[in-house]
TrEMBL record:
GO terms for cellular component: cytoplasm. Belongs to the RRF family. One of its GO terms (molecular function) is ribosomal large subunit binding. It is found in: Cytoplasm. Pfam families: RRF. Keywords: Cytoplasm, Protein biosynthesis. This is Ribosome-recycling factor. Its main location: cytoplasm. Transmembrane segments: none annotated.
Amino acid sequence: MLNEVLNETREKMKSTLSVFEDDLQGIRGNRASTALVDRMMVVYYGQPTEMRQLANISTPEPMTITIRPYDNTAVKAIESAIQEANIGVNPNVDSGVIRLNMPPLTRERRQELVKVLGKRAEDARVAIRNIRRSANDDIKMLEDEKEIGEDDAHRGLDKVQEMTDEFIKKIDDAAKAKEQDITEV
């Protein structure tokens, strides 16, 4: 019983970390990254569709993202989705190919991105703590129902705290690395 709670807790924390790391990919750093647009939603024939399903996305140069739609009728929809996303760059369309020339980050924009990063990191830490609280509640319930003993309950609570510390450290490390990428000139 206790092992099930611990395994489930670890999986939830891993999932939270994975979502956070994916989220970091969408925050612009010093170089152009396809992650900035590949999950962007485009209204294509009335259906919201991820950009990566509609086009080949690449970075031929450090500050350029190239989007080649599989279907030329998607060009206008992709162009308007990029403009609506407000990522700070205007798309250039040239014979069915969309180019995003990323301007260098200004000091103000870097500071804004660091604030966004800080908020997302805190949201991820809160999610980890919520998972911890839920696991602790489950362990206490098992103890109250006499399915595990007091010693096992204490060991379980300690193990949950260790996992919490481990995943919060991973979130902090990932955030710190992304912050360096953003602030590096």
